[in-house]
Amino acid sequence: MSARPEALEWSVDNCTVGRAMEILGERWTFVVLREIANGIRRFDDMRVRTNIPRQVLTNRLAMLVEAGVLRKEPYQDPGARVRHEYRLTEMGFDLWPVIVAVLQWGDRYLADPEGSPLSTVHRDCGAPVRSVLRCDAGHEVTNPREVAARPGPGAHRRS
Amino acid sequence: MSARPEALEWSVDNCTVGRAMEILGERWTFVVLREIANGIRRFDDMRVRTNIPRQVLTNRLAMLVEAGVLRKEPYQDPGARVRHEYRLTEMGFDLWPVIVAVLQWGDRYLADPEGSPLSTVHRDCGAPVRSVLRCDAGHEVTNPREVAARPGPGAHRRS
DNA sequence: CACCCTAAGTCTCGTTGACAGACCCAGCAA
DNA sequence: TTGCTGGGTCTGTCAACGAGACTTAGGGTG
Fold first, then answer.
1. Cα dist from A124 to B137, B139, B145, B146, B148, whole Å
2. How far apart are CA B94 and CA A77, in angstroms?
3. Which of A149, A143, A101 is nearest to B121 (CA)?
4. What's one Pfam family here (chains A, B) (predicted)?
């Protein structure tokens, strides 16, 4: 058996990564979030841009509203009836760090030679925004191998 | 129409978020990555901990190897034949910022009252590691609403 | 030698979800 | 009255998921 990993001792059933992925892990969730983060808030705009099938988009949006990540807001274009658009809730805005991290990873490994079609900037100063890892002692983590996982306060042993 | 969002002009078909999600967006991908980041590298250990069905785990691992996020490494326990375990590649290690960001979000919104079962620490100093957003001008982004999306160098207009 | 054990898979089969394409419906406008 | 538009629903097909049984390679045990 030669040094089994310590993590085997700990249960995984209250893991917040797992719970987060129940919401974020559906195939189109992040694409929808990217759209909304880009200011695309209306059903048909998203559908036309992304080619997500209607039914799937309907389901995904409903699920995200249900989960509390999005909310439905009424709007009315002049000479049209009241419709609804989708906006980020507080919980949704707090996904920005995740979106930025995914974008950064995608840009590094999956972009076309011309570069990324999308960037994130600081609204006030216009400079590009990046996700960085930093420890509470103030060290900036430059190599991800410096990060290690540990059981947290809510960890409990497996049956 | 009242001020359609600018993003509607831009094509989405070379978007790196979309491409990243073709790899990361499958239902169990992140859970697998969390396991491996926790040092759980063997098929059956993952299976027992996560309850992912065998077939799905096989597929997911194969897909991640194919995508270049994981690699298969031979190992041999004393008195057993050679088997294979799964490890992060460089590309996989670079997903740590994403994992940390997801964990942080999950901890904030989805944790049990006792807290998160998992934390990330700086290997050298032991202090907790967090994901933060910062712009290139050195400003730390404290409120995610300060972040805005812009077309990047690879952006091109929609047909 | 025959038999058992374990890790890491396949195989089978019923259920769920994705996807495509047609259809629907409320309200405004011509 | 008819048509347009946004935001859906309905239907049918096909791939993926999930549960459970079976398989396989090598090593150990009697």
1. 11, 10, 11, 7, 9
2. 44
3. A149
4. HxlR
Report the residue count for chain B: 159
Q: Using N-to-C axis directions, what is the helix angle for B54-67 and B29-37, rounded to 10°?
A: 80
Whether CB of B27 is under 7 Å from strand D: the answer is yes
Bridge partners, A79 (sequence order): none
Query: Containing H/E element for A121?
Result: strand A118-122
Q: What is the pLDDT of residue B158?
A: 83
Strand C contact with B84 (CB < 7 A): yes
Closest CA to A13 of B41, B61, B52, B92: B52
Q: Which of B107, B102, B29 is nearest to A99 (CA)?
A: B102
Q: Which runs of consecutive H residues, i.e. helices, occur in A12-113? A: 16-24, 29-37, 43-50, 54-67, 90-93, 96-110
Kind plus residue range of the DSSP H or E element containing B74:
strand B70-75
Average pLDDT of span B71-75: 94
pLDDT tens-digit readout, A81-111 = 899 999 999 999 999 999 999 999 999 999 9
- The greatest distance separating any two alpha carbons of chain B, rounded to the nearest whole angstrom, comes to 72
Domains of chain A as residue ranges with CATH = 14-94 (1.10.10.10), 95-148 (no CATH)
- Stated in angstroms, how far is B26 CA from C20 C1'? 22
Asked if residue B61 keeps its beta carbon closer than 7 A to nucleic acid strand C, the reply is: yes
For strand C, give the nucleotides within 7 A of a protein CB. 7-12, 18-22, 26-29
Residue nearest D18 (alpha carbon to C1'):
B53
Residue A49: the pLDDT is 93
Place of tokens 């410096």: A146
ipTM exceeding cut-off 0.90 for this assembly: yes
Q: What crossing angle do the helices spanning B96-110 and A96-110 adopt, rounded to 10°?
A: 160
